[in-house]
Design a protein that fits this description.
Blueprint: E1 12-16, H1 21-32, E2 36-41, H2 44-54, E3 58-62, H3 68-82, E4 87-90, H4 106-133, E5 137-142, H5 155-175, E6 180-187, H6 195-199, H7 205-212, H8 223-234, E7 245-248
Parallel strand pairs: 1-2, 1-4, 2-3, 4-5, 5-6, 6-7
Helix pairs in contact: 1-8, 3-4, 4-5
């Protein structure tokens, strides 16, 4: 029996923050579905390790997404290594500890907005001209349920993800004539390295249970959940979907 066609065969994708967590899950699934993947992360060694596991159709790039030179080099690597760019996944992100708004310092605030918001500006500027020359493309921004249903303790992070959602919708409208689709994914709190920061307390089974109790489907999000949503949005089968922010949240925002 013939194997089903891979959904991203022949596509070139960049995934930021791909050394771990959601980004690692997305990079793994995209590669399994036939894409050539630029594994980008501020953690050079982690990115290299992931790229090695993905084989010859992956290349690692050390990238701080808040710096223009790094972002331009990342996009240039995709073009030089694989001949084009079809998919950009803006997954890299950061947060402050769950705490009162006035306990977050100015430098930490600036870093959150540089990584979570300015990066979208830089990556879009760098990627869109190449996508346009290729006849179109897909941009996927990993935002958060925090941008839809904000809660106390993560105020400045919430705002950065609200900005990501609004930017997604605005870019979708502006880039549609260029055949570039722009969508977002809103994960609920997930099993990633930032979990203790989001909770504002140690990552223990007891503390997790307090947060899981607010999620109707009864668990945290996993990298595979976010990867599957990203694959759906990147797949040419979703060619008529743009400007949406899909909540992958087990019902948290209901």
């Amino acid at each position: 029996m013939a194997q089903p066609a891979k959904k991203l065969e022949g596509k070139v994708a960049i995934v930021t923050g791909a050394a771990s967590g959601f980004g690692r899950g997305i990079a793994d699934l995209f590669a399994a579905e036939g894409a050539s993947v630029v594994v980008a992360d501020i953690n050079r060694e982690g990115a290299a390790s992931v790229a090695e596991t993905l084989g010859g159709k992956a290349v690692a790039v050390a990238c701080d997404v808040s710096f223009k030179d790094d972002v331009d080099a990342m996009v240039r690597t995709a073009i030089e290594s694989f001949g084009g760019l079809d998919i950009l996944v803006n997954n890299a992100g950061t947060t402050h500890k769950n705490q009162p708004f006035d306990q977050v310092g100015e430098a930490e605030f600036d870093r959150i907005y540089a990584v979570n918001v300015k990066s979208l500006y830089l990556t879009t500027l760098a990627a869109v001209p190449h996508m346009e020359r290729c006849g179109g493309g897909v941009i996927i921004n990993v935002a958060s349920t925090a941008g839809v249903r904000p809660r106390p303790g993560l105020t400045w992070y919430n705002g950065s993800k609200g900005a990501a959602i609004t930017l997604t919708k605005s870019l979708a409208a502006e880039l549609a004539p260029k055949k570039i689709r722009v969508n977002a994914i809103n994960p609920v709190m997930g099993e990633t390295g930032l979990l203790s920061q989001f909770m504002g307390m140690p990552d223990t089974a007891e503390n997790r249970a307090r947060f899981i109790g607010t999620i109707p489907l009864g668990r945290l999000s996993k990298p595979s959940d976010i990867a599957n949503a990203a694959l759906f949005l990147a797949d040419p089968a979703s060619a008529f979907i743009t400007g949406v922010a899909i909540e992958v949240d087990g019902g948290r925002c209901v």
